[in-house]
Amino acid sequence: MNKLNNIRIVLCQTSHPGNIGSAARAMKTMGLSRLHLIKPRKFPHAEAVAMASGATDVLENAQIFDTLDDALAGCALVIGLTARQRELSHAAISPRAAAAEALAIAADLEVALVFGGETSGLSNEELIRCQRLAHIPANPDYSSLNLAAAVQVLAYELRVASEEAPQAGGKRLQPATHDEVEGFYIHLEQTLIAIGFLDPALPKRLMLRLRRLFTRAGLQKEEVNILRGILKSIAEK
Amino acid sequence: MNKLNNIRIVLCQTSHPGNIGSAARAMKTMGLSRLHLIKPRKFPHAEAVAMASGATDVLENAQIFDTLDDALAGCALVIGLTARQRELSHAAISPRAAAAEALAIAADLEVALVFGGETSGLSNEELIRCQRLAHIPANPDYSSLNLAAAVQVLAYELRVASEEAPQAGGKRLQPATHDEVEGFYIHLEQTLIAIGFLDPALPKRLMLRLRRLFTRAGLQKEEVNILRGILKSIAEK
Hints:
2 copies of one chain form a homodimer.
Chain A: E1 7-12, H1 17-29, E2 34-38, H2 46-52, H3 56-60, E3 63-65, H4 68-71, E4 75-81, H5 95-106, E5 110-115, H6 124-127, E6 132-134, H7 147-164, H8 178-194, H9 205-217, H10 221-236
Parallel strand pairs in A: 1-2, 1-5, 2-3, 4-5, 4-6
Helix pairs in contact in A: 1-2, 1-7, 5-7, 8-10
C-alpha cells in the first residue's frame, strides 16, 4: 500500500480549521498521511483537532507553506480539483480516472492532489499549476461539496484503486501507453477489414464501440501484446 | 436521474445533529433527497441546519421514525453499511457494487441504504433487516469514517452509477447475462485453438488473462454480439 505514501493532499487557503481536521480524518481512513497546507486562515486550531478524531497525527505532521509552488516541490503529477463548469474547458477527468493516473505515477514518483478554498475553489493562478483537472460528478442544481467531503471522495477512489492494483511481490502490471493502445486499434481495424467484418466504406461506429469497451477495461501492456498476438495469428491463418 | 428518487438514506440513532446536516449536504450534492431518521438524539437542531449549508430542504423533508421497520416500509432492497470486520461474515459488497445493485432495483422499486449510529454502527437487530451489507474499503489501522463521509462515499457511487446508466430516451445498454458471457468465452477459446494461438494441451492461463480483461470492462449484450460476430468472421475467412 506504499504508493499512497507518494501522494500528498494540498489544501489551499482553507478558511475553516474544522475542515482541515475533517480532511485529515478522511485521508487517514483511506491510508493517506501527507497533508500540505497553503496559508490556512487558522491553524493549528482546536476545531481541527476536534474534527480529526483519531487522525491528529496527520495534523501534527502537516506541512505549512506560503506558496503552492513550495508545496508542490518534487511532484511529477499535479491534479487540481474543480467544481466549476468554467474550468472544465481543458477536459476535467473523473475522480476514478484521476486516482488511476495518480497511482500509476506514485509507483515511482510524487503526486499532489490540490483542493482550493471553501468559497471560491482554486484561483486561476493555482489552476495553471495543475497538469490535470478532476471534477466530482454532482447535482447540477447543488454541486457544493464540503471540502472534506471532496477530499473523502478522492481519497476513497485512491484507496479502491490501490487495493485493485497488484500487491507487492505479485506480478507487475503496467498500463499500456497511449501509443501502444492506438497501435492496437489500427491493427484491429486492419484485421476486421481483412476478415470482411468491417466495411471501410461504412462509418466507423464499430471501431468506436470496440474502443469504448477496451477503454472501460483499461488495457495493460501485456494485454495489448496478447491481443496483437491474436490478430497476427488471424492474419497467418 | 429519477432513479435516485427511489433511494432513501436511513440514519439510525444518530448522536450528533451536525452529522445529520452534513449527511443531508452530501446527499443533495449527489442528487439524493430522501432522508429517513430513526430516533435521532437531537433533531431538529441548529447544528444540523448549519452543517447542511444549502441542503436545508433535505432536512425539512426528512421523516422521523421510531423503528427501522417503519422507515423501511415499501423497500424492495435494503443495504446496510458496516465498518466492522465481524459483520463481514455474510460477504459484504463494495460501495460500487452496492450502488449498481441499488440503481438496478430503483428503476422500478424502492431501495434503502441504512447507516448505524456514530459509536457502534448498526446493531444486530438492525443488521438482520438488511438483505445486503456493504463495506467501504478503509485503512485497517484506522477505519473510522465519519458518518457523513460514509454517506458521501455511497451517494457519490450512486451518482456515478446513475450517470453511467443509459439516459432516458437514449439507447438502452444492457449488461450481458452470465450465460452470454460464458458462451462468448467458449467461442473465443475454440477460435484461438483454430487459429493456432492457443495450444489446448497447455494450461489455460491465456483464457484467464482474457477473462480478467473482459470482466474489468463488464460486457454488454451488444458487445458480446459484436465480439461473436468477429469470431464467426474469422472462422469463415
